[in-house]
Amino acid sequence: MSNVLDQIVATKKQEVAAGKQLHSISDLRTIAAQQTTPRGFFHAIENQVVKGDTAVIAEVKKASPSKGIIREDFNPVEIAQSYLMGGATCLSVLTDSNYFQGSDDYLSQVREVVGLPVLRKDFMIDPWQIFQSRALGADCILLIVACLTDELLIELNDLAMDLGMDVLMEVHDEEEMNRALATSAQLIGINNRNLKTFETSLSTSQNLRKMVDEKRIVVSESGIHTSEDIKFLQQQDIHSFLIGESLMRHNNPGEQLQKLMTGQVE
Ligand SMILES: O=C(O)c1ccccc1NCC(=O)[C@H](O)[C@H](O)COP(=O)(O)O
């Protein structure tokens, strides 16, 4: 039986095929050329980490397959503004509509109003989507190693960099980590959530972090809820975090971010 990740990828293939009927790569290149220059996503995180500070990629997400609706009252621009006030280093915006109730428009709207670098959080399987991401204004894309062959991983990574974007390359186990480390990816996301079973454990970050040398930056993703979680990950020498649900469930997500980072969330 297929798992959720397989289903998402199957749906994505249909979406991409339909998208290609509407916009050619040449169209997307023209639209991308009208976008403002990509904001340095990697550099924003690196600057924080080099200073000895913590970098948070705060996620704008209405729903997910594992949690259903996370936030009914969903205004992506207001949430992003709140994250800016709360000290986020970068933003992550879900653009997948079928499984996360996201939208491509959310990314463009957020990026127009808030000056932080923005990750397009979606499921990349085809070069067409990389051009589309830049046309939408993305500063960084997510590449999930589990969804891609080695050849495609390298092709999409190189294409994103050619277009001036950064890449967050996501892994969940040792084998995926070895595949990511064979590429030039500078930003390695360790997803604490198994995307096939939804089981979440911070020990995934604890175990895999040891495989990455200091030339790359590790981002711990998913299942970060308390200030103790942050402290635990910092003790593993991880200083960048991608956080969604635990912020999105609060009325004022930026205030919750600030509390989380200052030891006030139990
Ligand atoms: O979260 C899911 O249910 C999910 C299912 C299938 C593919 C991806 C999925 N989530 C993406 C993420 O990993 C999270 O949005 C991200 O890391 C933030 O996690 P959290 O802080 O736990 O919301």
Automatic annotation (TrEMBL):
Q: What class of enzyme is it?
A: lyase
Instruction: Output the GO biological process annotations, alphabetical, semicolon-separated.
Output: L-tryptophan biosynthetic process
* InterPro entries listed in its UniProt record: Aldolase_TIM, Indole-3-glycerol_P_synth, Indole-3-glycerol_P_synth_dom, Indole-3-GlycerolPSynthase_CS, RibuloseP-bd_barrel
GO terms of molecular function: indole-3-glycerol-phosphate synthase activity; phosphoribosylanthranilate isomerase activity
Domain (Indole-3-glycerol phosphate synthase) spans: 5-260
What reactions does this protein catalyze?
1-(2-carboxyphenylamino)-1-deoxy-D-ribulose 5-phosphate + H(+) = (1S,2R)-1-C-(indol-3-yl)glycerol 3-phosphate + CO2 + H2O
Pfam families from the UniProt entry: IGPS (PF00218)
UniProt pathway: Amino-acid biosynthesis; L-tryptophan biosynthesis; L-tryptophan from chorismate: step 4/5
Lyase listed as a keyword: yes
Homology family: Belongs to the TrpC family.
The entry's protein name is: Indole-3-glycerol phosphate synthase
The source organism is Marinicella litoralis
> Gene behind this chain?
trpC
